[in-house]
Design brief:
The relative contact order is 0.17. The termini are far apart. The protein is globular, with a radius of gyration of 20 Å. The longest helix is centred in the N-terminal third of the chain and has 28 residues, at 2-29. Strands 1, 2, 3, 4 and 5 form a five-stranded antiparallel β-sheet that branches. It contains five helices and five strands. The chain has helices at 2-29, 59-77, 96-99, 101-107, 148-157, and strands at 36-42, 48-56, 118-120, 131-134, 137-146. It folds into two domains: 1-30; 34-166, no CATH class.
């Protein structure tokens, strides 16, 4: 009898662990921090050009998600350096997303103001290595150009980012 109880406890713990890992994977898949960036260079004055990888159930959804994540990367994470460019620090402080949650909820809505700072450098749905079918959807690599200086000025105007001249 004791063996059956132990077996039942073991099986329920194993099933609970499997459900948790699926739930955690789904949260990671849909996370706003789940993206990769590859710097391509510096665009015209005040812009940054890079490729961002994002996930979505459909290619169109992944493209929209990539646009949003490209702006998020500039605001909250910063951009990595490459052979041609130096690393670019994040525009906002680390806690700005939570401190100004209402503003950013509106800013990042579908069709929101974040799109004013995104210039796509690839048209249409990517193909080949930039469009990968993965379990649960697609992983899309999108080349984007972000109007970085304009985005910084907008955040400074809203009082979310510190002005560069205030540092000195």
């Amino acid at each position: 009898m004791f063996r059956y109880i132990l077996l039942l406890l073991f099986c329920s713990y194993t099933l609970y662990g499997a459900c948790q890992s699926r739930k955690e994977r789904k949260q990671l898949f849909n996370s706003t921090a789940n993206y990769e960036i590859q710097m391509l260079g510096v665009g015209q004055d005040g812009t940054k050009v890079f490729k961002i990888w994002a996930f979505g159930k459909k290619p169109d959804e992944a493209i929209m998600h990539a646009k949003q994540l490209a702006v998020r990367a500039c605001l909250f994470r910063g951009l990595p350096g490459s052979a041609e460019t130096n690393a670019t620090p994040a525009i906002c402080e680390a806690d700005a997303e939570t401190a100004y949650a209402n503003y950013f909820d509106t800013f990042f809505t579908v069709g929101g103001a974040y799109l004013n700072y995104v210039n796509i450098t690839t048209d249409g749905i990517p193909a080949g290595q930039d469009r990968l079918k993965v379990k649960g959807g697609y992983k899309i690599g999108l080349k984007v150009q972000i109007l970085y200086d304009n985005l910084r000025k907008a955040m400074e105007k809203e009082g979310i980012a510190k002005r560069l001249d205030s540092i000195f």
